[in-house]
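Q: Structure for this?
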Amino acid sequence: MYPQFPPGFRFGMSTSAYQIEGAADAGGKGPSIWDTFTAQGGTVRNGQDGRVAIDHYHRYAEDVALIAGAGVQDYRFSFSWPRVLAGDVDFYERLVDSILENGLRPVPTLYHWDLPQELEDAGGWMNRDTAHRLADYASTLVLRLGDRVRDWITMNEMNVHTLYGYALGDHAPARGLGLGALPAGHHQLLAHGLAVQVLRTHGARSVGIANQHFPVTPATDSPEDVAAATLFSDLTNWTFSDPILLGDYPSELIRAGVGVPDAQLDRDLELIKARLDFYGVNYYEPTMIEAPRVGKDYSGVLEVDIPEGMPFSPVPVKSDERTDFGWAIVPSGLTDILVTLKERYPALPPVIITENGASFHDAAPGPDGRVHDERRIAYLDAHLSAVADAISAGVRVDGYYCWSALDNFEWAAGFDERFGLIYVDFSDLSRTPKDSYYWYRDLIASQARS
Ligand code: FCB
């Protein structure tokens, strides 16, 4: 029995530009911060980069046909900002046309972490002007594609980008600013608000955002651990959703930390709380936090290490099962976070799960030509059931997109971590649907449609 969803529920698959496109210099495209970061050496596992990635730029027609073959309704992808800056919107015209010809709805994300290096050189997200530049970029795209694209996502996971890229050094642009990174978060939120305005002005019918969320639990009931978990969740969850859905930051500390004078901040927050048609939630795993214990070694708990001196420390989440990436498998965390969002935000728009999935180190197709990824099927099944549970609990969820359509370049982890429903052989770039792809197809076909 497959989990069942209300009529009209939309299924999809997600990808992002830098992780799949390759064609790093095609059409005069300049570098993004990920081109720079990966070229530095010692930044990505096995020294890998996305210069070729899975060459989706040239193989998009095959990829879109494969995605459509699973019976999904929506395909979420992202634009490469440096590519668009170089004037190559033609590629996205071809891509969108092919998505539509295959009967799918394109759901593009404006910004999925690949900032043009020239903007980084001018201060990147620490510079308020980057928000205005994103709005200009949004207008280029909506003017060219707005006749064919009805659903738009502004930003992807501003929290992860701010934490890993600006607070720590594990992702591009590796700034290592600690709590000093908060302005980078604020400027992304401002970019979101400005983009919503631009998209709507040019007739976009449906606008949303993709935010990563996760339940944060204190390791014990002690006041110190509870305070540490609250601060961590404020910084990584609510800093990026309260301004959008409540019109303010979760605490005075964070309001002060974003470094914008009060009157200006109030005007910014007005823009940031623009009405949305849907709210995208990316979910992977919960986090457990404690107040730092003197002398204890916390390295290796998260994919990245929180530097010493921070007032919170992640500890391993209790879970019997982990993905091959080491992420805890806790499907109920998805139900929990959806219910929490509904309780926290009376005006929560309909939710779409814009990412959810798992990395397993799948073996290449065997003599039967198949990739047997039972653990991914179990993961997807359990998480889709968790979504169905949230719907039963009264949360309006309108869709689910799995991460990812295809195996791809998993940021600092390179090509080892395979999240795709479609296997990619990285030596010859051939594509093979995995068993999970057929499972997803059958699940979608099993839904009673209205
Ligand atoms: C998310 C990112 C996405 C992918 C998955 C595994 O944080 O948005 O690009 O890397 O994790």
